[in-house]
Amino acid sequence: MVQKPTDDDLALYLRATRTFALLAERSAEAEGVTLAQMRLLFTLFDLGVASCSALASRLHVSVSSVTRLIARPAMTPLVSRRVSPVNASAIELTLTAEGVATVRRVTEVRKKLLSAALVDASPATAAGLRHIIDRLDETIPT
After folding, report:
1. CB 24 within 8 A of CB 38
2. Rounded mean pLDDT of 10-33?
3. Do the beta carbons of residue 91 and residue 83 sit within 8 Å?
4. In a domain, 27, yes or no
5. Could you list the residue range(s) of the whole structural domain that residue 21 is in?
6. 2 in any annotated domain
7. Looking at the chain, which terminus has fewer C-beta neighbours within 10 angstroms, N or C?
8. Which DSSP letter does residue 140 get?
9. DSSP E strand stretches across 84-142
10. pLDDT attached to residue 3
11. What does the CA dihedral 86, 54, 66, 79 come to, rounded to 10 degrees?
């Protein structure tokens, strides 16, 4: 029998999304960047080297949005731009050493806070969360 979540269950999960969003936002702000800029840094960290159009595609935003994000003063020391060796009209983006360090600091802050919050949590909590995330990954429109 499939058990439908109760209104109280849904309220708890909605509260969790707000709390995780706040954690993401505050940890980015502590590094002097916006949440949108942090998403770009994490994506570039994952990709290594990318064009503005590749980043835009991964972030589900326009190329001009990526261009504006990386043009902001806070991003100057974090993202390096270079002409593509394959296509002279294309620009490749990579993280600078400071950009990599920023991603790692934000990750460590998040890990530390989550680790402390998970002390004494049920082992089933992680499995349940993994299931929820997997289901959302399959269903959230991209």
Report:
1. yes
2. 92
3. yes
4. yes
5. 7-139
6. no
7. N
8. S
9. 91-95
10. 82
11. -60
Beta bridge partners of 79: 95
Structure tokens that stand for 28 in this block? 């980015």
Q: Is the dihedral of CA 37, 101, 114, 32 positive or negative?
A: negative
CATH of the domain at 60: 1.10.10.10
Per-residue confidence (pLDDT) for residue 125, from 0 to 100: 78
1 pLDDT more than 80 = no
pLDDT single digits (tens) 62-89? 999 999 999 999 999 999 999 888 888 8
Domains in the chain, number:
1
Q: What tokens does 67 get?
A: 């261009």
The answer to whether position 1 is within a domain reads no
Dig out the tokens for 142 from the structure. Answer: 């991209």
Tell me, yes or no, whether 86 lies in a domain: yes
Residue 40 CB contacts under 8 Å (≥ 6 apart), including other chains: 55, 59, 66, 69, 70, 75, 79
93 closest CA partner among 116, 74, 110, 70: 70
Full DSSP string of 26-79: HHHHTTT--HHHHHHHHHHHHHSEEEHHHHHHHHTS-HHHHHHHHHSGGGTTTE
